[in-house]
């Protein structure tokens, strides 16, 4: 269930990065944005997921689809060129992308390899900087950027390991980008989502144990629904959040406030 906020994003163009399938958090955000009247540009990682993303995007009236592997600067340049030629202006970016080797998301953090560390940082944190560099110049009417993070950035959570360190860098990047871009009328924020069963979550050892823990201990006594993250991202991308930048907002049934 998405809250009904008709036309909050009417006339706004938003790039949505990170849809892999219908369970993706980016897809829930896209639905919230579409309900609010936004024009959407979906990006996908590789030809492997192209057909699936194109099929999903076809459900949304005003949308287009572009391939963009964030490990490749050339792909991000091509995305910026596409947005400039097709739309001329950009108002929002959703960055819902992360990656780490499966073996680095289990066992001990101390065993992380140099290459595994660099890969997680590159795809999960640096990509936000690379994207902002190339897309913010198109935000000539001001804009907003939203990324996705997780509690493992600030607490040592079993198995989250190298991704927790990448999320810490991502959240710091949110603050530094917010400081850089405020004068250009561009806000940068993160949503810290509670655990949600997605493709990326499958890579984390004992993910079901984490879901059970949130059900048992969070103030709302339930896990997070992707639509709740979608509506919060919509809020942050809209003028309703015009006074908020450099912030991390938790959408996690309140789990992060609870002590042991
Ligand atoms: P998902 O697997 O649906 O989305 C991850 C996306 O990252 C996929 O679309 C994948 O194609 C994309 N991606 C990976 N490498 C890429 C690359 N090189 N170039 C372009 N795209 C690439 O899973 P999700 O859970 O929806 O993840 C979205 C974001 O939400 C991630 O940043 C994740 O860390 C974050 N998050 C997830 C949870 C959760 O429990 N699922 C909780 C908090 C935060």
Task: For the structure shown, list the relevant keywords.
260 residues; alpha/beta; Rossmann fold; 7-stranded parallel beta sheet; 7 strands; 41% helix; binds nicotinamide-adenine-dinucleotide
CATH fourth-tier homologous superfamily: NAD(P)-binding Rossmann-like Domain
Question: What is the CATH level 1 assignment?
Answer: Alpha Beta
Identify the overall geometry.
globular
CATH architecture: 3-Layer(aba) Sandwich
The share of residues in extended strands comes to 15-25%
Terminal CA distance: 32 Å
Given as residue ranges, the uncertain stretches (5+ residues, pLDDT < 50) are none
Number of distinct helices:
8
The major sheet is characterized as: 7 strands, parallel
- What strand line-up does the widest sheet have? 3-2-1-4-5-6-7
Mean pLDDT: 96
Quaternary state of this entry equals single chain
Percent helix range = 40-55%
Order of helices and strands: EHEHEHEHEHEHHHE
Give me the count of strands: 7
The domain tally reads 1
- Which class best fits the helix and strand makeup? alpha/beta
CATH topology: Rossmann fold
Structure ligands:
nicotinamide-adenine-dinucleotide
Question: Would you write up a description of this structure?
Answer:
- It is a single chain.
- This protein has 260 residues and is of the alpha/beta class.
- The relative contact order is 0.16.
- Helix 3 runs parallel beside helix 4 and helix 4 runs parallel beside helix 5.
- The chain has a seven-stranded parallel sheet, sandwiched between helices.
- The chain contains eight helices and seven strands.
- It is globular.
- The protein has a single domain (13-254), classed as 3-Layer(aba) Sandwich (Rossmann fold).
- It has helices spanning 25-35, 47-57, 73-86, 114-135, 161-181, 199-202, 207-217, 226-237; strands at residues 13-17, 39-44, 63-67, 92-95, 143-149, 186-193, 248-251.
- It binds nicotinamide-adenine-dinucleotide (NAD).
- Nicotinamide-adenine-dinucleotide binds next to helix 1, strand 5 and helix 6.
């Amino acid at each position: 269930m998405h809250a009904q906020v008709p036309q909050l994003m009417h006339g706004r163009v938003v790039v949505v990065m990170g849809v892999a399938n219908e369970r993706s958090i980016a897809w829930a955000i896209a639905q919230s944005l579409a309900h609010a009247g936004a024009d959407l540009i979906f990006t996908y990682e590789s030809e492997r997921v192209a057909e699936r993303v194109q099929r999903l995007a076809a459900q949304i009236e005003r949308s287009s689809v572009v391939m963009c592997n964030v490990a490749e600067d050339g792909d991000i340049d091509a995305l910026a060129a596409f947005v400039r030629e097709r739309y001329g202006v950009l108002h929002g970016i959703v960055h819902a992308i992360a990656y780490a080797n499966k073996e680095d998301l289990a066992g001990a953090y101390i065993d992380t390899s140099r290459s595994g560390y660099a890969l997680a940082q590159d795809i999960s944190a640096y990509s936000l900087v690379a994207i902002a560099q190339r897309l913010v110049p198109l935000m000539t009417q001001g804009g907003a950027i939203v990324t996705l993070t997780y509690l493992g950035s600030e607490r040592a959570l079993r198995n989250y390991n190298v991704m927790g360190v990448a999320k810490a860098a991502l959240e710091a990047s949110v603050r530094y980008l917010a400081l850089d871009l405020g004068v250009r009328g561009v806000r940068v924020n993160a949503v810290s989502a509670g655990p949600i069963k997605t493709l990326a979550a499958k890579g984390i050892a004992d993910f079901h144990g984490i879901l059970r823990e949130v059900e048992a201990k969070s103030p709302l006594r339930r896990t997070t629904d992707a639509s709740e993250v979608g509506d919060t991202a919509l809020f942050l991308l809209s003028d309703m959040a015009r006074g908020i930048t450099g912030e991390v907002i938790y959408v996690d049934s309140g789990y992060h406030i609870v002590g042991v």
